[in-house]
Design brief:
CATH architecture of the largest domain: 2-Layer Sandwich
Order of helices and strands: EEHHEEEHEEHEEHEEEEEEHHEEH
Number of strands: 17
CATH topology of the largest domain: Pseudouridine synthase
Distance between the termini: 71 Å
CATH class of the largest domain: Alpha Beta
Radius of gyration: 21 Å
Largest sheet: 10 strands, mixed
CATH superfamily of the largest domain: Pseudouridine synthase
């Protein structure tokens, strides 16, 4: 394999003396981005497990030192990329008309800095792991005039609601900085099974990613995990369930879902973590998705700061499920 010069992600590449190795210089576009997300773009098609292995072994380095997946990159950093196997580049499949039309109708806000989308459940935020097209790939295809679209944060594939997409690198950098602190308020609506305990307003237990024997990735409460904090507030009580506001103060994978499970009240429709009780409730009401919705976002942006307060109402299938629960009380 010869030396590789091209970089189609967030950096400029230069050859090294060792054949096949690239040194990529991080540009403003990727300033503040997590290393693992940067690698997914620079090395498309390489499985995440292989990227994490390369990081553990020191094959991938930042500024000549070992690095971790969650490390934040800065403009000017040098990232060493080994010659990992990548499948031949294929043009991404065209966006199905259904998704293009549906996304166009779910734009909550568009200005010179941001796109805010009310993401439908069932659409991943980006491609990979068997998903050809995610939200960001769809947006880049249907909006070719926006050459610098980048996801600011993530939502699980089965979660609906508000997601921020930056249109400029400086906006991405500013929002990443706010997300690392307390500069962005996120509020979700979640339906849990059973009656949520009165007085339980905060769960502060560490979470850790683990793998089941099947290879499926899950998240568990573990003393070896990272600190994770979620605040809860009861919105409405039903005979068999409770509607909650959930405010994650940290941004761990599946945080709201696993904290609710830890409290003994898993989310309705959560096929990964629910038990028989929750599955029966979802089936009885015809709910075939996770009841978790990113409802509200509040933050400021720019200098002088502009205040954003955004809301996305519950999808119709979630509202209908709540009506079914209300009718059971009568």
């Amino acid at each position: 394999m010869g030396e590789q010069h091209a970089s189609d992600g967030g950096g400029r590449a230069r050859p090294t003396e060792r054949s096949g190795v690239r040194i990529v210089t991080v540009t403003a576009r990727s300033d503040g981005q997590r290393l693992d997300n940067f690698l997914l773009r620079e090395l498309p098609g390489v499985p995440k497990t292989r990227l994490y292995k390369a990081l553990r072994k020191g094959e991938i380095r930042v500024n000549k030192g070992r690095a971790k997946p969650g490390q934040r990159l800065a403009e000017g950093d040098s990232v060493r990329l080994p010659p990992l196997h990548q499948p031949a580049r294929r043009k991404p499949p065209p966006v199905p008309f259904y998704w293009a039309e549906r996304l166009a109708g779910r734009i909550v806000l568009e200005d010179e800095d941001l796109l805010v989308i009310d993401k439908p459940a069932g659409l991943a935020v980006h491609g990979g792991s068997g998903v050809n097209l995610g939200l960001i790939e769809c947006l880049r295809q249907v909006r070719p005039q926006d050459r610098e679209l980048e996801l600011v944060h993530r939502l699980d594939r089965d979660t609906s609601g508000l997601i921020l997409v930056a249109r400029r690198p400086r906006v991405l950098k500013e929002l990443h900085a706010k997300l690392r602190g307390d500069g962005v308020e996120k509020v979700y609506l979640a339906l849990v099974a059973g009656r949520w305990p009165r007085g339980l307003s905060e769960i502060d237990v560490p979470l850790e990613k683990q793998a089941r024997a099947s290879g499926e990735r899950v998240v568990r409460v573990s003393a070896a995990g990272r600190r994770s904090v979620t605040r809860f507030r009861v919105v409405e009580r039903f005979r068999d369930a409770t509607l909650l506001e959930a405010r994650p103060l940290t941004g761990r994978t599946h945080q709201i879902r696993v904290h609710a499970l830890h409290a003994g009240h898993p989310l309705v429709g959560d096929v990964k973590y629910q038990g028989e009780r929750e599955a029966a409730l979802a089936e009885k009401g015809g709910l075939d998705r996770l009841f978790l919705h990113a409802w509200r976002l509040r933050f400021t942006l720019g200098d002088p700061p502009r205040a954003y307060e955004l809301e996305a109402p519950l999808d119709s299938e979630l509202e209908q499920f709540l009506e079914m629960l209300r009718n059971k009380l009568n």
